[in-house]
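New to this. Please check this protein:
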Amino acid sequence: MPLSEHISKQFDADLEEVRSRVLQMGGVVESQILAAIVCFTTGDHDKAMQVEETEFRVNAYEVEIDDMCVHIVAKRQPTASDLRLIMGVSKIVTDLERMGDEAEKIARMARQIHERRGLQIPRSAEVRRAGDLAVVQLRRALDAMARLDSEEAEKIIGEDVNIDVEFRNILRQLITFMMEDPRTISTALEIAWIAKAIERIGDHVKNVAEQVIYIVRGTDVRHISKERKRFGGKTGEAQ
């Protein structure tokens, strides 16, 4: 086997290993978010502990993948689409780690709410719905990355507004709840922060989708209007 062919195959293997690690990390973050939402809706203490323990795994993945990317750049000196993959992966990993942070925040606040007991938890069904929506979006974004599907990534970006709408609805309802019964103010404020954490997870999922488009097309769509994001032909493609 010629040396150049051997090096090329090893390079491809290195890139595939990075992608595989990112998808593994994404799966762990997804389970972390699901556990946090269950903790909120049921008060399951074990789920809260699971989220906190998983945080260490997520952080370890971030460090490992960043290190892999640095070594690939140093050893292989990738160009064009391969370099875009490495750069995109580096940013996706950061967003996944921050999703894990938001999940940990949800679990921590949920545990505080349930430990106080006594008061009905307002808007729990709506918060659960928003959380489920964020998890579905994350799953779709990871699938789009696995398949390098920029069209699916565009759809995910356009649908981020759905989570924003859920958040605003929850906030309005919580304000009404606090006005009707001042005893619920403390709990309602914590639930508002939980809803905000879910909304932030949605933002990070959108960031992942934007990086998928960058990896595939070489086009940075982070600051392009929503109208242009809906049409692949207008965002341009790199060779």
Notes: The two ends are 29 Å apart (CA to CA).
